[in-house]
Structures are given as structure tokens and as C-alpha cells.
Amino acid sequence: MTHWGNEYKTLEEYENREISVETTKCIFCGKTGRVEKVKRQDWITLIWTPPRERPSIQDLMPYLSIDEREQIISGIHPECMPKEEE
Ligand SMILES: [Zn+2]
Questions:
Q1: 75 CA to middle of ligand 1, Å?
Q2: What DSSP element (H or E) covers 33?
């Protein structure tokens, strides 16, 4: 019998489990969104640590794409992001 139940064998396994997170409303379409496969512990660090004290999201979630990281921070969906003309 463990505190974590049958689903997790170790604390590390629990913390590294990949979750789907809801992102804030996109300023372009007004809808929330989801980003998949975020490690639980990284998400907890992101939302509970003051911005000045936590690593940048690039360092925290290097396994996500730039678009996914942008959506987590701003809520803007990759498909809603205005394309910049060079
Ligand atoms: Zn959108």
C-alpha cells in the first residue's frame, strides 16, 4: 500500500507524468486551449513559483515546441498567431 496508490510506483514517476494542461483564453479567438504532454512537476513549478524565481519556460519545458510554450504563457494558439512579415 503506498500513498500514491497503484498508479504510481515512485514519486519520480508521479512527478514526471505527462499531463494535458488548459491554457488561458486566446486574445484572438477568445477560446481556451490545451497543451499536451507537459510534465506535472514542471507545470506545478511554472504556476506556483514567482516568475523572477523560476527558470525560463525554455529551460523548464525544453521538450515542448516554441508554439506550445508560447500558448502556455500567453494562451495564443499557434494558428491564431499573426504571421510577421519579414
Ligand atoms: Zn485562438
A1: 8
A2: strand 33-39
Q: What is the pTM of this model?
A: 0.80
In tens, the pLDDT along 11-47 reads 888 888 999 999 999 999 999 999 999 999 999 999 9
Ligand 1 centroid to residue 2 C-alpha, Å: 42
**CA 14 to centroid of ligand 1, rounded, Å:** 31
β-bridge mates for residue 19, sequence order: 38
Burial class (CB in 10 A: 0-12, 13-18, 19+), 81: middle
Distance 12 CA to ligand 1 centre (A): 34
pLDDT band at 4 (very low <50, low <70, confident <90, very high): low
